[in-house]
Amino acid sequence: MKAMLAGFAAIVLIAVGAFVGLHQLGFSAQEAYSGANVRLN
Q1: What's the pTM value of the predicted model, to 2 decimals?
Q2: If DSSP codes are grouped into helix, strand and coil, which group holds residue 41?
Q3: Is residue 41 exposed (0-12), middle (13-18) or buried (19+ Cβ within 10 Å)?
Q4: What are the backbone angles phi and psi of residue 19, rounded to the nearest 5°?
Q5: Mind listing the pLDDT tens digit for each residue in 3-30?
Q6: Cα dihedral 18, 23, 27, 30 sign
Q7: CA 24, CA 1: separation in Å to the nearest integer?
Q8: Rounded-to-10 torsion of CA 16, 22, 28, 29
Q9: Fewer CB atoms inside 10 A, N or C side of the chain?
Q10: H helix and E strand count, the chain
Q11: Looking at the predicted structure, is the pLDDT value of residue 38 above 70?
């Protein structure tokens, strides 16, 4: 049971870290698929 909970915690930490890291580096879908002629709210 401990191993499963540790695995779930690791998954959550990796997901949050990837989200924050990719967002800081500019790899969000909004920035990747918008150009100069696209207005996003």
Answers
A1: 0.63
A2: coil
A3: exposed
A4: -60, -50
A5: 999 999 999 999 999 999 988 887 777 7
A6: positive
A7: 35
A8: -80
A9: C
A10: 2, 0
A11: no
What residues have CB less than 8 Å from 40, skipping those under 6 apart? 30, 34
Encode 2-40: b = buried (16+ Cβ within 10 Å), e = exposed.
Answer: eeeeeeeeeeeeeeeeeeeeeeeeeeeeeeeeeeeeeee
Assess contact for 34 and 40: CB atoms under 8 A.
Answer: yes
Per the CB < 8 A criterion, the answer to whether 28 and 22 are in contact is yes
